[in-house]
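To assess whether ligand presence alters the predicted conformation, the chain was also submitted together with N-carbamoyl-L-aspartate. Input:
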Amino acid sequence: MKHLLGIESMSLDDIHAILATAEEMHDVQHRPVKKLPTLRGRTVVNLFFEDSTRTRSSFELAAKWLSADAINVAAKGSSASKGESMRDTLTTLDAMGIDAIVMRHAGSGSVAQAAGWVEASMINAGDGTHEHPTQALLDAHAMLRHFRAHDLGTLEGKEVVIVGDLLHSRVVRSNALLLPQLGAHVTLVAPPTLLPPGVSAWNVDICHDLDAALPDADVVMMLRVQRERMLGGFFPSEREYTIRYGLTAARLQKLAPHAVIAHPGPLNRGLEISSAAADSARSIVLDQVSAGVAVRMSVLYHLLAA
Ligand code: NCD
């Protein structure tokens, strides 16, 4: 693989290879000395045109723990804020002789477009409402590790219920492409106003009643209400949204005893997820964060060293 642009452009072999190497990287991540020489002399640039905590810092740690040199370029503070075009920013960084650019941008398709302009490997860290492939891979990795640790098997036959602002979510698109390939069944739950266009063609079921979907779930993935992308009124009020689509303390009782709660973060506590849910023993939210480093180490390894 030269680039990682989306789950859509990955083969099932690529997916399995990344998940298998992530298991090995997980062991490195939990050693006292977290350093492999694998990418010594290689350089990774994190180019973020949108804000990020988890994705940006885990890509930086992943690069550093593989001994690559890693630098961060945020659009705020770069020449992009002086009006430089995305293409000029990319070709400028590329001309320095770097090996990979991890890019996040508000434009859907922008990372694939960038791949046509540069020599470096492009890694999609979130492009608009299109894809966030490493998030879906780390979600799968965290779920697989949880199932294995609790003798629950693999993703084969599992029911994953994804709830929330699906219209603005690149995470749901990547997960809807990935999870069925690993044997899981996906049910999407959202108000009709927050469903993405074209969703009827996806390999998922759609439901508007969270209470009906919860009892069958092995995993409930709550997605953030992306207020910064909302221009109009997508639901009557935040209170109304929480009542119908929030994972409240009362709704926790509807989950099967073995079911777990996931959320890619950042969390709107009290809106789509209650603290009772986020901080419960069923929550794998921090396991997802931890999986993020192992999966991103694996991705950098496969693009730059394998
Ligand atoms: C997500 C993103 O940026 O797409 N966050 C993440 O990478 N963990 C989801 C979000 O912003 O809600």
